[in-house]
Amino acid sequence: MLNFKIDEARCTQCGMCSKECPTLIINGKNGIPEIKEGKEKNCIKCQHCLAICPTAALSIFGKNPDDSLLVEDETPSTEALERLIKTRRSVRRFKKEAIDSAVINQLIETAAYAPTGHNKNQVLLSVTDSKEALAKVRTLVYDTIKKAKQADKLEGALAMYGSFQKVWEEKGIDVIFRDAPHLIIASAPKSNSNGPADCVISLSYFELLANSMGIGTLWNGFLKSVFEEIAPELHNAVGIPEEHAIGYMMVYGIPAVKFTRSVQSEGLNLNKINL
């Protein structure tokens, strides 16, 4: 059920909702907008109709339009957002302090606004919200690597993980987690062809907001390899559904390092399409 409702006292019959609907299921030509007969199933749940209504007259899926943020309110300037993107750095040294759970909730709730293919919204964010929870994951990961090493399962490129485990056990040097206090993993159903991209987009939104708060982040390819190539059973251990694939993962916390300027990127590879 779309639960499509119009507040007739607010509706100006401008027709903007019907014009913006990507699947053209709203009839706005006969006064008060309504869903065309038999077309409910074509809705892709984008909520564009709710977002575009200038008078907050339209509700769908039980959403109250008055609870939505207004686009006309203050947004970051182009210069501020550009500076945030260009000065973002991967952080590999973190302070020991944990981030307040309310801040973590704000980060993950905002990440849920990231776009997903076909508006499926199937990205699962698995998080640790305390240092203690991360410490348990860290112990589990290094213990699992040790068992794999003892079973001679770390061959080729995976051999370096045995070295990571050794320096952790003997010297307390945490190469994989970098002593970060928090972890976030984005996964999505394997059946969703857009899942890998959706996960990365979600974490990108998470990262930019985190960086704006002074929170450092590190995209953790080492840990992803442990979960995928050394010990797939870790998925179940941390509560990731069997039918899910990990898109990516990230550790984060308060940086113990302060960068003073941006790098000077040489990474632009450009192809101007000229047919």
Describe the overall structure.
With 275 residues, this protein is α+β, with helices and mostly antiparallel strands. It has two domains: 63 residues, 2-Layer Sandwich (Alpha-Beta Plaits), CATH 3.30.70.20; 167 residues, NADH Oxidase (3-Layer(aba) Sandwich), CATH 3.40.109. The chain contains nine helices and eight strands. The protein has a four-stranded antiparallel beta sheet, with helices on both faces. A two-stranded antiparallel sheet has the order 1-4. It has a two-stranded antiparallel sheet with strand order 2-3. Strand 2 and strand 3 form a beta hairpin. Keywords: Iron, Iron-sulfur, Metal-binding, Oxidoreductase. Belongs to the nitroreductase family. This is Nitroreductase family protein. It holds the Pfam family Nitroreductase.
Layout of strands and helices, then pairs:
Elements: E1 5-6, H1 16-20, E2 26-27, E3 34-35, H2 48-52, E4 58-59, H3 78-87, H4 101-111, E5 124-127, H5 131-150, H6 159-171, E6 182-189, H7 195-212, E7 216-219, H8 221-230, H9 234-237, E8 244-253
Helix pairs in contact: 4-7, 5-6
- The neighbouring-strand order within the major sheet is 5-6-8-7
Main beta sheet: 4 strands, antiparallel
Radius of gyration: 23 Å
Predict the CATH topology of the largest domain. Answer: NADH Oxidase
Task: Give the class from helix and strand content and strand pairing.
Answer: alpha+beta
How many domains, as an integer?
A: 2
Count of DSSP E strands? 8
